[in-house]
Amino acid sequence: MFLIAGVQPKTRRVDESPQRCPSCGLAQAYATRVDHYLSLFFIPLVRVKKGTPFLFCDRCGRPVDDVRPPAREVPPSGAETVCVACNKAFDSSYSYCPHCGQRA
């Protein structure tokens, strides 16, 4: 007889109310935590360690704490406009931001 057991992480959403993500600007960041469970034959049985909550953006796919300021891109023509939604530079001849679709 053999036994397959171990501790595996399981991501759980703590709060279902979305918050604004500082990286993408959309309200798709949720309070999430990673709990560790003792599993037997890959079936989680008992929670061994309760994780600390953090914000995780569904659109960006990364924790909100890991947000770095967006890099500024230089448009080819030299005349630039900075988008108010995503903070990226684009050519001022555009009516909409080519990165996020916000009206200029």
Task: Explain what this protein looks like in three dimensions.
This protein has strands at 5-13, 29-40, 43-49, 54-57, 62-63, 80-82, 89-91. With 104 residues, the chain is an all-beta fold. The protein has two domains: 5-68, no CATH class; 69-104, no CATH class. The mean pLDDT is 81. This is Zinc-ribbon 15 domain-containing protein. It holds the Pfam family Zn_ribbon_15. It comes from Desulfosarcina alkanivorans.
H and E order: EEEEEEE
Structural class call reads mainly beta
Coarse morphology: elongated
Provide the β-strand percentage band.
35-45%
Measured between the Cα atoms of the first and last residue, the distance is 67 Å
Roughly what is the average pLDDT, rounded to an integer?
Answer: 81
Q: Which consecutive residue ranges, at least 5 long each, have pLDDT under 50?
A: none
Helix content: under 10%
Give me the number of helical elements: 0
Radius of gyration: 21 Å
Give the number of DSSP strands: 7
Number of domains: 2
Report the major sheet: 5 strands, antiparallel
